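Long-time lurker. I teach an intro course on protein structure, and each term I like to show students one example going from raw sequence to a predicted 3D structure in token notation. This year I'd like something fresh instead of my usual example. Would anyone be willing to generate the tokens for the chain below so I can use it in lecture? Attribution to the forum is fine with me.
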Amino acid sequence: MRMYGRRIAPPRLAAAAARAAAPPAPAAPAAVPGPVSPMARLPRGAGMPARAWAGAQAAAGVAGDALRPMLDPLRIALFTLILMTVSRVHQHFTIIGRLRPALLAMAVAAGYAVLRPSSLPMRNFVRYWPGKVILALLVLACLSIPFGISLGGSAQFMLDNYSKVVLCAAFVAVAVRSARDLYLFVWAYVAASAILAWMMFSVFQLQTYGGYQRLAELYSYDSNDAGLVLLVGLPLAVLTFQTGRRWSKLASAGIVLAIGAAVARTGSRGALVGMGVVGFFLLIGLKQISVGKRVGVLAAAFVAMVAFAPPGYWQQMSTILNAKEDYNWTTENGRKQVAQRGLSYMMQYPVFGLGINNFARAECSISDKAKNHVDNTPLRCSAPHNTWVQTASELGIGGFVLWCMLLFGGVASMRRLARRLPKAWEYGTREQRFLYLAPAALALSLVSFMITSTFLSFAWIDTVYLVAAFMIGLYHCVDVELARSAGGAMPVAPGAASVAGRRGIATPRGGRFLAPVPRRRGAP
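-- Reply from a regular --
Happy to contribute to a lecture. Here you go:
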């Protein structure tokens, strides 16, 4: 536009030019976003129940909410290591066995520990008390070698077996950096239990003994040992059922039924006792699940046991009520006599014991049975058939105390941790819910081990050490989550008070993460 020979800019162009010519205004400091509570993502509907509202918030999803694992060579290797160690499926399939999957997995983990020590910080293994107890057991086992009754036998067992058991547990424990890692490794044990249950149906055959049938002559596990491994995995399968999504829930439910059916096929009375104890604590302990669902899960497992119990199973189980008439009570090689001899070994070698894995050798060398043996008659070198007797006799009084600390202390610490966790986590993200439910599952797995291992020699096998590794990983994940939550707003369940008070948040190890205190503008 021109007016009196001069060009006039339109009003909009003039305003834009003025804004461009003006000096830029100082930028406001960017606010640092804190963690967003999933409870604040959606408005609560009028009259909507608290659980339904929390479920709607979780369904909305937040960044990092899913438990989908982050797979890398290290975690794949450790998943494979747990899978092979627990299921021992490579002993059945020749092509898998030739690949030496467990050895390759250990090599990969060891390579990460050497080349990338930040991915496997081994010092974290002894940061929490279960790792310290396991390390103390390892040291005491090493000391028992020169002071035991057979240096060569104990030394060979240490190099070929027990050192690998402890190293595997250490790798799994320190590899857990988040709840996703712990969830992945728990699923590895659950999947291994499913494979073992499948093998007990399709690979191993029933055999007849005195009017009843049971699995026998298993080349991977004894039938009683298989029952222990499955019962330790049962609470973990319930945990994956509680925290999984649709397909995970279906798979977990199927595994729970398969474990119940496989336990019946073992024909193990100790496994039946363990199953009853696990069922009892599942019924009274898992209050996060409705009573109807708890009863339904136990009823389904019991139906599976009844449906797949071999002929004569329940008649054989009834002998539990007449223990004094059983061969384990009356014969020289029964569990009662073996336990009494084991306690006498502990009194003869109270400091360092017989030496790790020397119990059977003591039965054929220094026992009263061996001293009174008649020539040209069979002499049975019995296993201890009791982990408590096994640790007491082979590692002395100190080993027995450490063993009790690992088991009883593990159950007590998991229960204590469950009470200290924020109630809000039950309604929080999937990771928080998994961490909230994991202590009860791990405590129940330890109870399962304690009951069934009373009839087995299982002190130096991987099962309980993997559970202890899960406990160490859980402690680390809880510390990390509490520290992250203390840095901002914590998700609080409807009607629940915040745990971030003026004195901070109590951590599982007794420490505290101080909650941030808002300051007035201009305050130093």
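Some talking points for your students: The chain has a mean pLDDT of 80. The longest strand covers residues 206-209.
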